Records
---
Amino acid sequence: MIFIWGLLLVLESRADDIWEQDLSDMAIGPTTEGYDKVDLKCAAEHMEVAIHMEQDFSGIIYTRGSFAEKRLPCFRDLKSGKYFRMNIPFDGCNTSNVNNVYTNILVVQHDDDLIMPGDAAFNLECDFSKPKDVPLHSSVTTEVFDVVSKITLADADPGGKPIPELERLKVLNKSDTVSFQPKIILRSKDEL
């Protein structure tokens, strides 16, 4: 009986080691698979994000740091579909504001609890820091801000290694809207 008990303890310990090893060897990393495009529109007080998935998706989308609270507008539990929208306020959802450059990371996660390979993340940026003078009348000008919108592919794993600058896939547009389409970006990168 003691032998069987000891054998069970050894087997249980070995199973824990294998599980831990399987998880530690797993690489999440940035992905260009599973979605057709991500659109960003920089509005006056929030980011409007639209995600177009390749196949029917059920999972969660959220801003980094909002997973634990699981509350709108920073977190959405999606049951089924290929197209999803989310408005991320500039004054919430862990949105960073440094000199009128608003940034946040959006995570697209297939499992409700675990980040796994195939999950995606995007660094969203709305840059309102560049003023320009606009004439209202021949003697009056006003200062308005040009908007630069940018999406950069990120690692869904919050503990993942930073992506070197030259390897980052990103799109930037000198307007309030930008569209990240990985197949087009990769094709144009290969042509260089």
---
Amino acid sequence: MLGLQRAETSFATTCYTINSINAHGIDVLPISDGFDEGGFKQAPCLEAYLESFRIIGSKTLTELIHSLEASTLPINCLVYDSLLPWGLEVAKSLGILSVVFLTNSVSVCSIYRQIDLGLLPLPVKPENMPVLLPGLPPLGREDMPSFLMEPPNIYLTAIMEMFASLDQNNFVLANTFEKLEDEVAKAMSGLWSVWMVGPIIPSAYLDEQIKTDTEYGGSLWESRGSICTKWLNSMPPESVVYVLFGSMARISANQCQPSRRSGQPGRGVLLDTLWVELNSLEALSLGVPVVAVPQWSDQPMNAKFIEEVWKVGVRAKKDGGGIVRKEEVKRCVGEGWWGKKAKSLGRTL
């Protein structure tokens, strides 16, 4: 996006990732997480990986920025992912601007912010359900970000570390827009300063101001778009359901089977991703109805908003064993595309 606006930008990622990324229109530069041969899978555990990334990533990112000081375009601003809170330390040590990019929705982030400010105590106890917070609908246990309902874990530690230093950043960006989360934006206005810069999706699929902007500019896989498009064009209109699985959530073999046997044609997305917010924004922007199957992290809350707040999709319900059965998938697909809700679902916001 910045590249298309003629802003000089570089994208830094791990050595392991850079060997497989297909990037167009942006400079991709390597830093090390300490596991250059295999990345996350090479690490003995998640805690070891994140600690290594903090120590070695900070060092190699600092060295990278130093190496560019003598160039015609030295780095003067660092935009970092909110799950890498050490980005702030690097920026401050170098005397450059620090900008944290929130990858969760503002609604989800508002919960973490209120925990950091002491307005919502942890752990969240069952007897305190539903949780009532400014700008948000009542949240049951099944709606809360999973990290808050589990024993203390490394992800929650990283998230809370970032929020503890949130105000030290020069800017805070969020991949959302005010119309989408206006109630929570108003409720939180006095508790933080966030710039809503979303939805960050290719312009060709949004406002068409930049018709050549048809992709994100980087992918970990070789593009097979032409093959997929050719196949899709051979299918009858509104006869395909797009099933999207994430890269980190663990999906059991028992869960995969119902997804394959929904037994219904139709258009749309069966959404089950690591960072579901980005894909929710894609569906909302393109007017595609959604069947949400939340697994972990912020997904439960996003699913609640998809069904109850934005009213653009259907949330699949799990059985007693935590599995979304094929009958439930069929119900959701049918309700989303042919049921009473079908006409209102999938509208763009």
